[in-house]
Amino acid sequence: MNSPEVLRRDLTNLTVPQIGRLEETGKAEEPYRLLDPVDVVVEPVAEWFAELQACSKPPATIRSYGMDLLRWHRFLWTLEIPWNKASRTDARDFARWLQLADKPVRLHWRYQKYGLPPGGLPKQSRPDRGTPNPLTGKAGPGEKYAPTTRAHSETAVRLFYDFHCEEGAGPLLNPFPLDRSRRSRKAQGAARPNAHHNPMEVFHNERTGRYRPTVPKRIPKRIPDDLFNALFAALNHNRDRALLAFWVSTGVRAEELLGAKTKDAHPGQQVIGVTRKGTREYQEVPASTDAFVWLRLAQEEAWRGGVPRGRNQTLWWTLRRPWRPLTYDAARAMFNRANDLLGSNWTLHDLRHTAAYRMARDPELSLTDVQWVLNHAHLSTTEIYLAASQDEIVEQLLAHHARQAEGKLPTPRPPAPGYNAASLDVLFGRS
Predict the structure, then answer these.
(1) pLDDT in tens, 83-133
(2) Long-range contacts made by residues 207-210, C-beta under 8 angstroms, separation at least 24?
(3) Are residues 147 and 95 in contact, defined by beta-carbon separation less than 8 angstroms?
(4) What are the tens digits of pLDDT across the range 22-62?
(5) Is the pTM of the predicted complex or chain greater than 0.85?
(6) Which one, of 45, 36, 41, lies nearest residue 77 by Cα?
(7) In angstroms, rounded to a whole number, what is the distance separating the alpha carbons of residues 68 and 19?
(8) CA 60, CA 68: separation in Å to the nearest integer?
């Protein structure tokens, strides 16, 4: 039974310090581990990470779940609550705190290494956080935690406690319960999700957490052709041009392309091999001719500069010594520098959306082919690119308003023989 003091916990003035950390080990058997404020490994989290690895989850998934668990453990450490003593009141307050708290400001690595300058942090040149970009219409990261972040945190922590509840090492009840409607269906005999599913309807996610927020469905953003050309022109190096040309013509994810090796590029067949993020399968996808032209130019420049050569060497290198394989963070920084020149806020993943829109809207290309290229598990995921983008919808509606203002709206067709025109005017309110 929770005490009245716990129920009246002041979350508005609650400060959760950035204690503990998620450490990348570089070891294949333990890619990440969670450390407490005194740099001791949190063993319950390490056990769950081992379970995730046994279930063939990639290191990126373990890192994503680890960041959510770090946020939850910081909340518990601040309130001095053991992880296996957390109640549903604590889980509820954590969900409320995520809605109220401001996201911590991530410092640049130079500030982390050398400390802050005497005048404090420099003023940000970017627009206010959370406001839409005037060029792209995309809202940047806001001051608060986004609904997607809160939903992901709820799922990760609930699965963490599900594992330990099954093992008998955690609390008797999961602090993060399922939705009440799901529990009521279980009490009525529908213990299996989608137990009474109609085969003529789509499957619904019935394992929804009680404290999971509603995540709005957003239309994927594509980069219009004129803005993409301007973004491409803002690049200064052939390597960067080759990267953008591959991303926008293949539709592969950013990290999938960055993992390619020299032997994976086949200009003669005009395909490039990548390892897929989810299934970890190797797949050769077609790319544009321009992409291979820019790649060849970039390779010649890199080899003249002393970049290692070999079939098993990485395909993408840094531009300065010491030569290192190009990482995702470095590629994103390159892309952001081009964004800053234009005043835009496109992301690397928007290049994948752009490629998907271009392929899906081509009448000569079947949707199943696009699904194969994008490596989507379900065709319904690919179908979202058939709909018009927000920019196209706005353009069509503005054209409609212009036609209406000029009186150029199409006149209705005359009724078919046998219908009384006066009666139809009354029926449709034209009288």
Answers:
(1) 999 999 999 999 999 999 998 876 665 555 566 565 555 544 444 567 888
(2) 207/178, 207/182, 208/178, 208/179, 208/182, 209/154, 209/155, 209/158, 209/176, 209/177, 209/178, 209/179, 210/176, 210/177, 210/178, 210/179, 210/180
(3) no
(4) 999 999 999 999 999 999 999 999 999 999 999 989 898 99
(5) no
(6) 36
(7) 14
(8) 13
